[in-house]
Amino acid sequence: MKVLVPVKRVVDYNVKVRVKSDGTGVDIANVKMSMNPFDEIAVEEAVRLKEKGVVTEVIAVSCGVAQCQETLRTAMAIGADRGILVETDAELQPLAIAKLLKALVDKEQPGLVILGKQAIDGDNNQTGQMLAALGDMPQATFASKVEVAGDKVTVSREVDGGLETLSLSTPAVITTDLRLNEPRYVTLPNIMKAKKKQLDTVKPEDLGVDVTPRLKTLKVAEPAKRGAGVKVADVAALVDKLKNEAKVI
Length: 249
Ligand code: AMP
What we know:
By secondary structure, this protein is α/β, with parallel strands linked by helices. The protein has one domain (about 1-245): 3-Layer(aba) Sandwich (Rossmann fold). Helix content is about 30%, strand content about 25%. The protein has helices at about 35-50, 70-80, 95-110, 125-135, 190-195, 235-245, and strands at about 1-5, 10, 35, 55-65, 80-85, 110-115, 140-150, 150-160, 160-170, 170-175, 200. The protein has a nine-stranded mixed β-sheet, sandwiched between helices. Helix 2 (about 70-80) links the parallel strand 4 (about 55-65) and strand 5 (about 80-85). Helix 2 packs across helix 5 (about 190-195). The mean pLDDT is about 95. The site of adenosine monophosphate has 23 residues, from helix 1, strand 4, helix 3, strand 6 and helix 4. Pfam families: ETF.
């Protein structure tokens, strides 16, 4: 069984992003970029399934600018077998990405697609769900445990009330939550090995997908600055402030 793992190149989680002065977006010039953390968890899970012998090939895919190749090389250093870059300079929104992934699913016929539950830049939490709908595949989002047995996959998922267990038939879509695993440390020998792995590049047109954005960003603004906190003397003072200043009780 093949596993397809979509990996997104995003602003590194340690970077404090700044809004551009003209309010059209955030400034990502000269900012450190990394693999979306939830996607690292997805690659790790796919590689662990391969190490267990239930998966034969792990294919990482990234959609975006040429530099996404670096993200794919990182995925291959973790253990993905090959990479596919869907190269475009166009702004990509979740529906367009889901359509690109659907085209690759049709081509590669993976038994599982393991995505991150969300990308930490747009926080959309949409792509996996849209891909499942477009491909008419069962989905288990926010996975904290994945077990494959034959053509069935059992997934524990994190829901508001605790854990839910789903049994899905493959091909299926899974999205990862934080507790699924702890991605391995990428070693230098594996970084070197990853440079030699196969990386194919295709364009959205090759996959027959129109990626024109459907949504328009009107304005991006910094959140309002928060005032400094104060220490209260006792519970009565706290209750008084909550009632009369914050007016929340
Ligand atoms: P989102 O719906 O944008 O929060 O993204 C959810 C997941 O979809 C991510 O964790 C990735 O696995 C995948 N994804 C989103 N954008 C891309 C992209 N440009 N290239 C590859 N995978 C992506």
